Amino acid sequence: MALITKQCAVSGQEFVITDEDQAFYKKMGVPLPTLCPEERRLRRSSIRNDLYLYNRKCDKTGKSIISMYAPGAPYVIYETNEWWSDRWNGLDYGRDFDFSRPFFEQFAELQAVVPRMGLTNRGENSEFNNYSLDNKDCYLVHTADHNEKCYYLRYSDRNYQCMDSDFTYDSRFCIGLMHAENCETCFFSQKIKGSSNLYFCYNMQNCHDCMFSTNLQNQQYMIFNKKMKTREEYEIMKKNMGLDTQAGFKKAKKYFEEHLAKTPRKHLELKNCEDCAGDYLIDCKDVVESYDCYRCRDIKFGTYLHEVEDCYDWDFVGYKSELCYEISSSAYNLHNCKFTMNCWTGGDNLNYCELCLSNKDLFGCIGLRKKQYCILNKQYTKEEYEELVPRIIEHMKKTGEWGEFFPVSISPYGYNETVAYESFPLTKEEALARGYKWKDKDDSAAYQGPEVVLPENVIDADESVCDRVLQCSGSTEFYKIIPQELKLYKKFKIALPRLAPTERRKKRMTLRNPRQLWDRACDKCSVTVKTSYAPERPEPIYCEACYLKEVF
């Protein structure tokens, strides 16, 4: 087969379909994509809201609940325990397929009546979390599992008393981390492992008691990559930084940014990988144009996947799944599934389904459990199902729907509420012009009280600060400091934040490179490498060989 060059139906950008791509699409029985990889990822990630939470009523019990669906959203929303109960049956909403109308139109009508869970969250004393499992005493922890007494985490698992961190694992008593593993009492650092007592550090392994240092391993008492003569000298230097004051914290942050701008970076973050091209890939083989994937094989265009094999175009989460295409927010033993979102636990041969658990042979279904041979939530015999599905596919080919993921227009959320908005920001006007929804901010109940000024030194803050409404200095958003948060700041003598949690998260995410690859020359040996650092970025970029020689 020859390479095929196509023009994206949305962006107009040209993209290439390789021989391997064509073989995969043929194996899956789907047509060649009409959108470029970036627009396909935008479309898939526009159905996921894991950050924005609202107060609303459960449509089953009338109870006030926390939900990822705003009040007034045209859906039937159940509190999580009620949704998981056996007190309702998805088959009660079944209907015949209408061959005179587009499929997506009929699916949207089914979306409006089948109950949806308010939050994807199961834990203990952790009601304000979403896409989370088995967290205990956690607050605003999203896409994160098995954490305890943690606050404002995302993409993070198995942590204890950590706060304001992303992609952080198996760590304790940490604040402000990005990409950390097995660390303790580390603060405002990135890409660290097996370390303790780090402040404003980057790419440190098995290091302890260091500040403003980068690209080191097995070191202690380092400041700006220089060894202090004694522990006492290090402690005096650290104390003189005054991190317990707002002025000292701002100065330290500026020092770190200036130091980091001159720090050599590795072109891609790959560990134990073979024939891979992407960023933050671990124990992967033949994984291409994918990001944040672990123990995956033969994957292309994937993000945040674990233990997935022979799949294309999947965002979140995977786990022991194979032969799937155009999937979003689905996990656990899925096989031969296509164009599916929020489906879990042993799905087999699912097409265009949502919120389905442990099913086989479904087409266009929502909210079914342990069912087989259903179309638009209506039960059929095996023979009826196998006769009707090919007819529906032929109909969808005529309407131009077959082979396309769900359109953004039927997402349950405003575009600016979704994960897509983070990676592919659009203005309200641009989003509406594309036919997407938009969630306007409701300021009708906004705080109208007096402005509160936080104390300069965290030592001077008492618990009364937790009763006050604060205004973010970056976004003007209102926020509060919770008692557990205050306790950690005081314990580690860190100045109280002047930014709201959402703004702090946005600042952290700017530390991550975009999920995109460029060709660029190594700044040491000039060999051409693939990298997630855009050519105009100022940081020195090294190929792996030069990087290993230069650092550590």
Rough shape?
A: globular
Low-confidence stretches: none
- What is the tally of beta strands? 34
Largest sheet: 9 strands, mixed
Instruction: Say what oligomer this is.
Output: single chain
Q: Would you tell me the overall average pLDDT?
A: 95
Alpha-beta classification? alpha/beta
**Strand order within the widest sheet?**
21-22-23-24-25-26-27-28-29
Number of separate helices: 12
> In what range is the share of β-strand residues?
25-35%
* Distance, first to last CA: 46 Å
Fraction in helix: 10-25%
| Rg computed from alpha carbons, rounded to a whole number of angstroms | 25 Å
Written description of the protein model:
This protein is α/β, with parallel strands linked by helices and 552 residues long. It has 12 helices and 34 strands. A 9-stranded mixed beta sheet has the order 21-22-23-24-25-26-27-28-29, with helices on one face. Strands 10-11-12-13-15-17 form a 6-stranded parallel beta sheet, with helices on one face. The model has no long low-confidence stretch (mean pLDDT 95).
In short:
The strands form 10 sheets. A 9-stranded mixed beta sheet has the order 21-22-23-24-25-26-27-28-29, covered by helices on one side.
Can you give keywords for this protein?
552 residues, 9-stranded mixed sheet, 6-stranded parallel sheet, 12 helices, globular, single chain, 30% strand, alpha/beta
Fold topology:
Elements: E1 4-7, E2 14-17, H1 19-28, H2 37-45, E3 54-57, E4 64-67, E5 77-78, H3 80-84, H4 103-111, E6 116-117, E7 121-124, E8 130-136, E9 142-145, E10 151-154, E11 163-169, E12 178-181, E13 190-193, E14 196-199, E15 202-205, E16 208-211, E17 214-217, E18 220-223, E19 226-227, H5 231-241, H6 246-261, E20 265-266, E21 270-271, E22 277-282, E23 285-294, E24 297-331, E25 335-341, E26 348-351, E27 360-363, E28 372-375, E29 378-379, H7 382-399, H8 419-423, H9 428-433, E30 470-471, E31 478-479, H10 483-491, H11 501-509, E32 518-521, E33 528-531, E34 541-542, H12 544-550
Parallel strand pairs: 5-6, 7-8, 8-9, 10-11, 11-12, 12-13, 13-15, 14-16, 15-17, 16-18, 20-34, 21-22, 22-23, 23-24, 24-25, 25-26, 26-27, 27-28
Antiparallel strand pairs: 1-2, 3-4, 18-19, 28-29, 30-31, 32-33
